[in-house]
Amino acid sequence: MSRVHILATGGTIAGAAASQVDAGYTSGGVGVEKLIDAVPGLRGIAQLTGEQFAQVGGQDMNDRLWLKLAARVNALFAADKADGIVITHGTDTAEETGFFLHLVVKSNRPVVLTGAMRPSTSLSADGPLNLFNAVAVAADPEARGRGVIVAINNDLHSARDVTKSNTTDVQTFVSLGPGLLGTANYGSLRYFRYPTHPHTMESEFAVVGQEQLPRVDILYAHANMPPDLVRASASLGTRGIVIAGMGNGNVSTEAASELAKAVKAGLIVVRSTRVVSGDVGRNIEMDDDRLGLVAADHHNPQKSRVLLQLCIFKGMDPRAVQKAFHRY
After folding, report:
1. Do domains 3-202 and 216-327 have the same CATH topology?
2. Most buried among 113, 216, 298, 317, by the most CB within 10 A?
3. Both ends of the chain: CA-CA distance in Å?
4. Superfamily of the domain at 3-202
5. Which residues make Cβ contacts (< 8 Å) with residue 106, sequence separation at least 6?
């Protein structure tokens, strides 16, 4: 059997509530061995090892943990300690952690993120089956070369394309546009495609030995958006700004003028969108060439932040950053 190592980071999948029908719960309280033992037949599909990497809710995932997680994944593969890795994770930021690893893991072996929308103590908890399917994917040689995969609610998503779309629905994760990588039905796997953009071994990004990433802020655009939000972000030491823009990544004329000043001061500014799906095109309604801005292409604000952090860390100028947003 394939060797699968589980890195548990907490989240709702390891959460506990006062009763089976209590909507309130505490994230991350259940340890990795209990998670494994709660899934019938799990040890029969792979040689399992477990590690309690962290115990946080998805909302408390941060850059420091990302760097440690990337280092641990790369070290396990480099030492040939696992054929695949499963990461249990809070759903709030699973798409961001997944995309980060999708760009910095240097192996073609599968890394699979999973989580749950209901805590482990809940009536009809979704975590056990999600973990079963995730382990099946991580153990499957056919999963190699597909980058980081999010396996949840019987669906397999590319970490580049997936996003959380509902606050409470178990079918919250969607890959609008590119679609699913495949499906998982009680460990029976079906793949539809490979990721459409470079990742892992093909990615130019590496974070070996790093302890921090550049600060990048996300500013949410809205009617009557004050330009002083841009000045505030710049004054607090950010290296880049991602705009969750209106429509096709738009901001008000006043905010655009302030963003142009930030670019002249050395910041890199990326226009994404607060709209749930669709690409942000360059020079559509805003003159990116004149303002010095970067168009996010398919990346939502949270994914744009991840990619921009890596671009700034690598020392890219705005022109190179634009190429990276199209490439990845």
Report:
1. yes
2. 113
3. 33
4. L-asparaginase, N-terminal domain (3.40.50.1170)
5. 74, 77, 200, 201, 206
What residue segments make up the domains of the chain, in order of their start? 3-202, 216-327
- 49-105: pLDDT as tens digits: 999 999 999 999 999 999 999 999 999 999 999 999 999 999 999 999 999 999 999
Whole-angstrom distance, CA of residue 154 vs CA of residue 302: 24
Options 3.40.50.40, 3.40.630.30, 3.40.640.10, 3.30.70.420; CATH of 216-327: 3.40.50.40
Q: Label residue 48 by pLDDT band (50, 70, 90).
A: very high
Question: pLDDT for 290-320, tens place per residue?
Answer: 999 999 999 999 999 999 999 999 999 999 9
Among the options 9, 12, 93, 200, which is catalytic? 12
Supply the DSSP string of 252-269, one letter for each residue. -HHHHHHHHHHHHTT-EE
> Would residue 253 show up in a list of annotated catalytic residues for this protein?
no
